Amino acid sequence: MLGYLCLVELTDLHQRTHRSLRISIVDKCDLRCTYCMPEEQHFLPKENLMTREEIRSLATLFVERYGITKVRLTGGEPLVRPDVVEIVRDLAALPVKLGLSTNGTRLHLFLDRLVDAGLKHINISLDTFDAERFKKLSRRDGHAQVLANIQQAIDRGLHVKVNMVVMRGINDDELLRFVEFTRERPVHARFIEFMPFAGNHWGRERVYTYSEMLGRIGSAYAIEKLDDDPHSTAKAYRVKGWAGTFAVISTVTEPFCGNCDRLRLTAEGKMRNCLFAREETDLLGALRRGEDLTALIVSNVQAKHKMLGGLPPFQPDTQQEVLHGLSTRPMVSIGG
What we know:
The chain is of the alpha/beta class.
C-alpha cells in the first residue's frame, strides 16, 4: 500500500475542493439500458482494465495524499467483475465513506460477502415497477430479481438508494409509485432527470423536470424539505411520517456545478473531472510506467470547467450545440 507524507487539496480554479471519487471497475454490463448504452457498444479487453491492485493503489493515493473522503464503485455493472468483493474489502479499509452502484440483477450472488467485506451504502437502479417495461428499457429480463434484491439489501441493513431515471412519456407515470415505495421502507428513492450522453437519443423535450416532479408529488402528498449536504447532487424530501425519503437530481434544469466536489476514474484508469468532460488524463498508463502522478492529477482538476464540462445549458435552443459537444463516451463507459 502506498504511503504519503503530505496532504494536497485538490482545488480547481473555481475554488471547489474535491473530496469525492467515483471509480468504475468494469465497463461491461449485463443490461442494455437505452439511456446508458448505445445499440452497438464494444467493451475493453481485460488487460486494459485496472487490476485490483491498481485500483487499491490509486484509491489509496487519492485518500492519503489528496484528502478524498468518499468513494463509490461503479461500472458498467461492478457485480459482473469476479473480484468485486475483494475490491470492496480493500477500499473499506481506507478512511472513507464507501458505496457501490449496481443494477441489482446479480446482487443476491454477492450481498452477504459484500456486507462482510464492509459495504454499508448501495445505490440500485430501477426505472420501473412493470416487468414488461423493464424488459423494454433494459433490453434484458430480470425485473423480479432486482425487486427481490432491493428488499434483501434493506433487510441486511444497508443504506439503500433506488435510482430512477425519469423520462417523459416513458416512465414518468410511475413517479408516485416510487414515492409510495418509501412509505414503510427505510429506502431513499432518487429521481434523475434524463441526461445527454453519446448514443442515448437525448432530447430536451424528453426531460421530465425537477419542478414537474415536485409539483406532481406535492399534489398527492404532504411533503417536507430535508437538509442537503453542501456537496449533494440531490435535493431531498420526505413525505411526512414515512420511513424513507425521496430526492431529485436536477442536472439538466438546475445544475449543481457550483458545489461539485466529484472526480472520476474510468475502468481503464482515465481521470475525468466532470461527468460531461471531453478531456481525460491517463493515470493508469503513468502508474504502470512508474511515473509520479501528482502533476497529472493536479492539472486535471485545475482544467475543470465552471459548469457542465464546458457544455452550454441544456435548453431547447442549445440542444444541437449540446449534442455536438458531447464526449464520445456513452454513460456505460464513463461510470455511473
